[in-house]
């Protein structure tokens, strides 16, 4: 539903008209630079929320979305086949690993499908967020130095996350599990999609916070507060900020909820499996250590002999 206040249009959790999105889709260099590390990684992971070409922001092409979904289906089909082949005896202690693998497979599959669905359905909302943020930054005259700090932070975060994922693949896959197949390695790397989504949403919230602080500071220090045109302009800016917030809720809410529920349930499941395995293997001189990782490949367990038994 759309409600109009003067010349302002606010959007309440619905599909944004394409004509409105494309009214002002030119993105300035400073804002592009701030979004670039996140947009680059999302494009690499074939989960981009929009396309930026020649300084213009537009919807993803049908072919881009099709390739992403097709690649996901192929990769998950191979993962499912390998999971079924490698399953052990359901009547022994290995049934714990089987349940762990099935839970990870189902939850990650649902998470990826949810991400693709939201990116496609709310593509115009994602574009509108960027356009509105740029409009607010222009109106409040936020300096490029403030955006530059966010750009540096985003590049740093992207590099660190990539380093952790690549290090995990190198150490866990090729040292502890040297026979791991290539499709699992690819899937493990693409699981970084969740981290990129959280980083992207955090960046949007930081921009909202920055613009709200700048708006309040402008109102507090303005010498034009007696002019009606000033308050009309500031009201327009505030409604743009509010529109961005509504778009964040409609596009991010389900993904954030899924990520929180999955992280908690995944950690609790791993701890439960570790406890049960230690109880089952207590008399065999073996201890089991568990780690809470973002991997569905390696079952997150390391088995090592008890020092007292050596």
UniProtKB/TrEMBL annotation:
Transmembrane regions? 62-85, 105-131, 152-177, 197-216, 237-264
Keywords for the protein's UniProt record, in alphabetical order = Membrane, Transmembrane, Transmembrane helix
Task: Please identify the protein, giving its name as recorded.
Answer: SFRICE012772.2
Instruction: Determine the domain of life of the protein's source.
Output: Eukaryota
